[in-house]
Write a structure and sequence with these properties.
Elements (H helix, E strand, L loop, with lengths): L14 H11 L5 H12 L3 H12 L8 H12 L5 H12 L5 H13 L7 H17 L3 H15 L7 H17 L3 H12 L4 H4 L2 H17 L7 H4 L13 H12 L2 H7 L5 H4 L2 E3 L3 E3 L3
Antiparallel strand pairs: 1-2
Helix pairs in contact: 1-2, 2-3, 3-5, 5-6, 5-7, 6-7, 7-8, 7-9, 8-9, 9-10, 10-12, 14-15
Length: 288
Amino acid sequence: MASTAIPQQPPKFVLDEFIALALSNTPAELHPYFESFRTLYTKKLWHQLTLKLFEFFDQPSAKPYRVDTFERFVRDFEGKINQLRLVEMGVKVSKDIDNPQTHITFLTSLLSRIDTKKSPEAHVLLLATIAHAKLVFGDLEGTKTDMDAAWEVLDTLEGVDGGVNAAYYGVAADYYKAKAEYAPYYRHSLLYLACVDPEKDMSTEERLVRAHDLAISAFLADTIYNFGELLMHPILDAFNRTPHEWIKKLLFTFNEGNIGKFEALAPLFPQEVSDHVLDDERRFIPIT
């Protein structure tokens, strides 16, 4: 039951066989979930079944069984449930697949079964997730191709689910970070933060890294002339009481145009900033 192999075409589904196998191969604490699956599936209560599946997938002890449950159970009725919720489910369980090629195969297989016109948000979320997987595995060209395809659909939508926007802007920011393109990273990273709750959705370390990268990109981008939006963002609080708190002070000092304060902070600059010069007392210009 814990295998992560992805069947190309699942065998004919037999509910009782699936439940019996699950009950024999999973810990007793998970058995009530499978009994609920049986009842809700039989009654065709697809919304309630979706909620119960998310509850199941959130259980730490369910981790070894999530991919198998998705592929052998959810796939049987995936066309009957909300497609965005289906993709969210698929994205969640895909994180359990360690093999890069199998991971991407799982996601692209799901993508092929999503109707873009009927479920554009689901399509965008899945494309953004595939783009992120390719980025992690070092395929920058593939990442950009999928990002562009996702944006082509996303740009036509209104009232988009926050998680969908976050997935797109998150992978776009990561892509531009990998390419060391400071201005696009800065813009997309701020858009990503507008879609999430940093306190709830990001760890302390993630907030600090994001704040650091935003600050450095603000200094080094050649088309950012005002840090106002960043200075008002609570993400900068991640610097408080850390060895990097000087960066926050520098941002505010730099934005004020106070050269005296700036020079007083200069000895604190690490190599990443001190390798650049101050141009017209406002801009850092990277050495090319």
